[in-house]
Amino acid sequence: MLDVHFVLLGAVVASVGTAFYLRDTLRGVTQPNRVTWLLWSAAPLLAFAVEVREGVGLRSLMTFVVGFSPLLIFLASFHNRASYWRIGWLDYLCGVVSVAGLGVWLATRHGTVAIAAVYFGSTANAAITLLTIRTWTTAVDAFPLYIAFISTVEIALVAGRLGPRLRLSLERTGPG
C-alpha cells in the first residue's frame, strides 16, 4: 500500500490536465458553458466538505481537486468571450441533485449518507448525460462514462459499506 502522501502526486497529475484546459480557456480556444462547469464543481466540493468534517484527512485532497478544477475553469470562463451561459433541463437537474446532496447532509448530519446521495446524484447525472449523446466521441462521452463508473463504485463502497468490509477482510487474511 502506498503512503498517504502519494495523494499529493495524484493531485499534481490531475492538476496538469486542468492546467491545459485552463490555459485554453484563458486564451479563448475553448468555449466552456459556465453552468456546466459550475455544476461539475458543486458535488465534489460538497463531498470534500463532508470528508473534512468526517476527518478523512489528506486523502480528501483528491475530492477537493476534482471539485476545484472545474471551479477554476468556471472562474476563467469570465475572461473568455467565447464562454457562455446556457441552462437546459439537464443543468436544472444537476442543480437539484447538488442542492439535494447538501440538504441530505444538513438534514442528517451524517456524512456517509450525504456522500452516498452525492454519488447517487452523480451517477444519475452521468447516466442522463450519456442517454442524450447522439454522436459518441471521446470529447463527448469520456468524462460522463468515467463519472458514471466511479460514482457507481463509490455508491457500492460507501452505501454498501463494502470498503470497511474489504479492509477488515484484508486485515484478517493479510497482504497477498
Q: Structural class of the secondary structure composition? A: mainly alpha
The helix tally amounts to: 7
Strand content: under 5%
Shape: globular
Rg, rounded, reads 17 Å
Helicity level, as a percent range? over 70%
Low-confidence stretches: none
- How far the N terminus sits from the C terminus, by CA atoms, comes to 11 Å
**What's the structural domain tally?**
2
Please, what is the average pLDDT? 79
- How many beta strands in the DSSP annotation? 0
Order of helices and strands: HHHHHHH
Largest sheet: none
SSE arrangement:
Layout: H1 6-27, H2 34-53, H3 60-76, H4 89-108, H5 111-131, H6 138-158, H7 162-173
Helix pairs in contact: 1-3, 2-3, 2-4, 2-5, 4-5, 5-6
What does this entry show, briefly?
This protein is an all-alpha fold. It has 7 helices and no strands.
Describe the structure.
By secondary structure, the protein is an all-alpha fold. The protein folds into two domains: 1-86; 88-176. Helix content is 76%, strand content 0%. It has seven helices and no strands. The chain has helices at residues 6-27, 34-53, 60-76, 89-108, 111-131, 138-158, 162-173. The relative contact order is 0.11.
Structure characteristics:
176 residues; mainly alpha; 2 domains; 0% strand
